[in-house]
Write a structure and sequence with these properties.
Number of helices: 8
Strand order of the largest sheet: 2-1-11-10-7-8
CATH class of one domain: Mainly Beta
Number of strands: 16
Shape: flat
Distance between the termini: 56 Å
CATH topology of one domain: Tumour Suppressor Smad4
Largest sheet: 6 strands, antiparallel
Strand content: 25-35%
Structural class: alpha+beta
Length: 413
Amino acid sequence: MAALRTSLIWHDEVMADVVDERPRAITIGPGAGATFVTPDLGLPVDYAIVRPGRRGHVLALGGAMRGTVCVGGVEQDVATLLAQSEAGFHATSIGGIDWGVIELDASGHYKLFFAFVALDEVPAKPLFEADLEQRASLAFSTLLHAALLFATYQLYVHHDTVIEPVRDLTASYVVTRTSEIEAPAAKPAAAAPVAATVAPAMLPSTWHEPDVRPRHVKKGTQSSGPFDAEATKAFDALKGPRQGIDALAQVDGGGTPAGEIGAGPTTRGLPGNGPRGTYHPHSGIDTGPVRDASLCTGSGCGGAPVAVTTVGPPPTDDGTPLTEKDIDDVIHAAKGRLTHCYQREVNRDPSLAGTVQVRFEIAADGRVTTARVTASSVKSDEVSDCLTRSIATLRFPAKGRAVVNYPFVFALH
């Protein structure tokens, strides 16, 4: 049986190591509850890079990750897998002989290593280096054994020799009680038979429902009954078989003029609108306008035109440098996740809109090495940070180095 071993590497030094015999979530992030605590790497809080799946473990790649993973004996580039996914995240099942070294951020200082190892290869840790759960389990086991030994000693300890062992505790109580029991008294002689008596028949009931209504009293005197005149009138109105139901049907939520449909549930019977007690909804609940975000990219959107500046010669003599169409094609393929950067913030502030100008550099192999905002009329640092992180994960055609100035226009429909 194999176990998953994951290690957090910082500047090529192993900072933490975890071995799991059964699938569980491996999380990274700044939260105290994360498996590996790291600075903010532009990922969701407590990002589960490994999680349980139907067949074992699932590896989830995202953000600005780089590196190499070997799945099924085939080595694959992490940036290529992310570029092929429109959502900006890539998930794959791992197990068996799979392994990988993943750079968690663009700097490459933080890395995650994973591989599957046999259980007999798992290194044993000294007690002071064991996990908190292991140390707590050992302490509980020690206390439990001590309690069992103490209870065993108390049960099998010898009694004081002065007291007879047979007559202690319960035995002494039983012996004492049985010695005090007297001999059973003799049965009394049979009494003479008594003539059977017949209970007299019950008289017809003379009970009547008391009249709790107040008696008529003279004006100026205080009534001794429990109800006043107004309560008596209401009581009489509810006595009939239908009058009470009809009266209750007049109850509503209040605040609505008679004859009009209220804004909430009501049991008021309205003429021509069915029987009394019918629910009349007012209208649908107003949940506010739908904030449908839109993103326009490239030239012709109202921002500065696209500028592509090649750096150095193409990779091959007969090759062509990067063009504006090459940039537009990759940006358009990732339009969904780029729009998400704006959609998430405009849901909180519907006044956000404008143009964000981004300058990014492309390496000879098509990777984005740097990305930063040069100008923005969208007053949100979150939109700018999310946009640059998403652009850093893109992969362009390998046509040589280039510097690109690109506009992104955000608005609401």
